[in-house]
Amino acid sequence: MKKFGLATQILVALVLGIVVGTLFHGNEMAMAIMVPMGDIFIHLIKMIVIPIVVAALIVSIAGVGDIKKLGKLGGRTILYFEIVTTIAIAIGLLAANLFHPGSGLDTSNLEKSDISKYEETTKTAEGQGFAETIVHIVPKNIFESMAQGDLLPIIFFSVLFGLGVAAIREKGKPVLSFFEGVLEAMFWVTNQVMKLAPFGVFALIGVTVAKFGVATLIPLGKLVIAVYVTMVFFILVILGMIAKMSGTSIFVLMKVLKDELILAFTTASSEAVLPRLMDKMEKYGCPKSITSFVIPTGYTFNLDGSSIYQALASLFVAQIYGIDLSITQQITLLLVLMLTSKGMAGVPGASFVVILTTLGSMGLPLEGVAFIAGIDRILDMARTVVNVLGNSLAAIVMSKWEGEFDQEKANDYIQSVKQSDVA
């Protein structure tokens, strides 16, 4: 297994889980063997979520204090990132409501105990008004919230604490260093837990298919189609409009970055193209001082593709289990993703952890990650392309906003790209 990467191992585990689940459909003994393996993986995931949420949010929020020192550029960049990623999350939620990728699965075979706790959580949330939801977000005892795994109050406290660390400046540096150390340690723990992901996915998907049959797989295809259609829409409409407003074309930008976009798609890694991306955006007319700040910062704060995917995937899991989220709950989901999608950016398997955090905060079944984990690589390829394109466009927008974009240099570079294509 060492010859294969984690994504390949998870995909193989997914296929094996489907095969075993199909062969032992309705077999209680086979399910009894697989259930503990899946439960152990879910417990490990639950174990790492809270320390990662706390450390990642405190480090990222306290880090914004340093970004503000860069003056107007820092403030404008963060404002732009916040607006665009919020639009991305909203589009992801709208797409999930439009496509219903998780609907259509017969959950009548589920034992009542499997889902009653989630239905209870959802009904409680539905019964609450907006005021009660806001009150619930503010913890009366943060340690009680941590013990109960109540993520919304934990997120609220972590953001507030991060702002406090940033506000006290020099005195806050030892505290920030401590949480940076915690985050690094949790990176290591997360990596170890993720090595067990193939076994967890095998068991969880195996049990699901054994309970529901092969019909379980239909929502997976619907999710892939929904994600890709939504990503294309976001690129052509939202990024296309932003590009036009900033005096460029999204198609020209895609042509300039075609090699980087292909590399990002095939490797599913935006980090792999970071140096080349910065170099090309400088050639495209963006000053070095802006590209060297905006693009790396965007890798933490402006992951449009990941934001769309996380919103879609969270509602996908709710739909699989037949849980309807109210408008208030979906607004809460949007607010949670606005914070966690940024705080988790540096975490290994970030989107996976963000979805788990989101599911936990909304009282949704964590077992649903078995579906997503198996096809995550296919979805990761699409979201990486959107992340890369979104950050490249951000460099142009910020350069124009600062009045430092070199249009003549951009025109010359576009011409040279066109000539090289003809040659």
TrEMBL record:
It comes from the Bacteria. Its main location: membrane. GO terms for cellular component: plasma membrane. One of its GO terms (biological process) is dicarboxylic acid transport. It holds the Pfam family SDF. It is a multi-pass membrane protein. The chain crosses the membrane at residues 40-65, 77-99, 151-168, 196-218, 224-243, 315-338, 350-373. InterPro entries: Na-dicarboxylate_symporter, Na-dicarboxylate_symporter_CS, Na:dicarbo_symporter_sf. Keywords: Cell membrane, Membrane, Symport, Transmembrane, Transmembrane helix, Transport. One of its GO terms (molecular function) is symporter activity. It is found in: Cell membrane. PANTHER family: PROTON/GLUTAMATE-ASPARTATE SYMPORTER (PTHR42865), PROTON_GLUTAMATE-ASPARTATE SYMPORTER (PTHR42865:SF7). This is Cation:dicarboxylase symporter family transporter. It comes from Niallia endozanthoxylica.
